[in-house]
Structures are given as structure tokens and as C-alpha cells.
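Workshop exercise sheet. Pairs work together: one partner reads the sequence aloud, the other fills in the structure field after running the prediction. Swap roles for the next sheet.
Pair: D.N. / O.F.
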Amino acid sequence: MSSLCVDARLLGSAGIGRLLKNLLPSFSENFSLSLLCYEKDCEELRSYSDRLILMTSPIYSLKEQLELPRKIPSCDLFYAPHFNIPLLPIRAKKRVTTIHDVYHLAHFSELSLPQKLYSRLFYNSALRLSDQVITITEFSRGEIQRFCRVKRARLAVILNGVSQMFQREEQSAKGYLLVVGNIKPHKNLYRLLLAYERANPKEELVIVGEREGFLTQDKRIFALLEKNQALKERVRFTGYLSDRELPPLYSSAKVFLFPSLYEGFGAPPLEAMACGCPVVASNAASIPEVCSDAVEYVDPYDVNSIADGIVRVLSDDKRREELIEKGMARVKKFPIEKCVQGYLEMFQALVNE
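Structure field:
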């Protein structure tokens, strides 16, 4: 059996963590699997492998780069699910990296000087040092080509999938507007709050996701809420919730809101669709590619457009039912099994070369 080492340190993050949780069960069945991890994730990861390699250095640090070559074992294949790859030589015969998006390059002017230097170095190194680079939409492939000048053939697109845990659950009431995401600036929560205030629906706004711990965060969000007590009383932050806690929330929401400025894929709208919740979403980046005609599109840079989209879906029962029906059909095009099979076939082809 071929040996595979996976960097699983981002197991707890939203998009990358979700991908890892979907891939690891099949990796454990088809490879001799080793996992780089932090101690906090050991209990969960033991269900996939007993070869856990503890890392102690922070992600995106110099110490990380010194620790990775020492800890990565001799293996047929090393997989990095993010662009923070080891720069120094490692004991892997082949490397694969997933680059989900190039947000840091697309929004380069918003970064600090260290972040700019880090982003350029690691995106380009991931492309140069990897035997295969995976990305998750045609949009992201085009963006990588645009900013990194890499040949199209070097980039394979494997679409993310939606887990079968996301299914419609019958709920007694649908009484809130829902957002699932974090407070990074590109998630556009500041404009969403302004739009929510302008639309003035009777339903409260529930925001699921972590509020702290990000290198970049939109501080305007909390400044706005502190200044506007009436708005603050109608907005509820739940903090982090596990994947298992999300389907009932999606199913009970009246509308799901996704006003993001930039996404490599954007799984939450599909998860909402799978749970029978109509979606109001941004018309930017990869979102139209992923969502097709199954959402109510708005201009994420225009507060009035976002507010109008909210009002349209809340006030028009026929439109809501149409979006629910189209959403249930759209999400069927993203089975998680297809995503997993794409990774397995690529990995097996590489180790057999």
C-alpha cells in the first residue's frame, strides 16, 4: 500500500477543515496514512490513522518551516491542503497542494508588507514545488493563472462536494436570517449589517462563525454594532458551531445570506440549498459558477442591492419556493463522492508513475 502524509493542522478551519474531513476516511482506506496535526485534534484524527505526528509551531511561521522537514516522514506522497507548503526539501517522492483561492493576491493592497511578501513567496513556491496543484473552481484556476502566470495544464480542477449530513429537516418555525462565515473583510459582513438595517425585516440576523483569531478581520463590524444599539439587539453571534449543528440552523432559517466579495468556491450556499433554505448571494467571484440560477443575486458592493435582495425573497413566497426548488436541484450536482474520487484517482496516478 502506498504511503501518504497529509498536513491536517487546519482540521478546525471552515473550508479547508471541511475538505479534510471529507477526504480522510477514504485516504485511510486506500493509503498507509500519516497525519501532521496539533494535539487538540488528536482524538478526532485517531479514527483515520494511528500515525499522528505532533506539530508545535504556529501556521505561517518561520518555526513551521524548520519543523516541517524534520517531521514529515519518508512517504510516496505528501499532501498540503493549503498553500503554506514546506519550502525546504522533504522526504516525499511526490507532492500535491490544493490552492483554494488567491484572495491574498487579488486583494494585495489590503495586506501588510509581511503578508504581501509571504503571499507571493508561498503561492509561487506551491506552484513550483508541487508535482500537481489542485484548485476548486474554474474561477480559481483563472485567478491563479492571472496572478501567478502558470500554465493551465499545471492546474487540475476538482470541485468541492457537499456532505450528505446537509439535508432538509422539518422545523416548526422559520424565524431568522442566517449567515455562516467569519469576520474577515472579504466576507462583507459590514455592508450586510447596513443592508439588514435598511431592509428592516422583523426577523433577527443570526451569524454563525468565529469572531477572533484571524490575521485580518473587519473591525468596522463591532464599531457599527457598538454605535447602534437597536441594530445590536437584533443581531446574534453564535460563535463556532460544529458541522453537525448546522443542518437544523439552515433548515430553520427563512433566508440564507452570502454577500461575500471573494470566494474560491463558497460551500455555505450549497449547504443551505441542501437544507431547503432559499439563498441571497453575491454575484462576485466563483459564486455564480457554483450557484448558477439557484440564488437571488445581489451586488455585494451596493448596500441598497443587498437590502433589496433580502426584501424580495422575504416578501415573495413564489420566489422563495422557486429558489428552494432550484437549490435542491443544484446541490445534487456536487456530490461529495465525486470530489473524493477525484482526489483518490489523482493521488493513485501520481504514486504509480
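Discussion prompt: The longest helix spans residues 113-129. What would you look at next?
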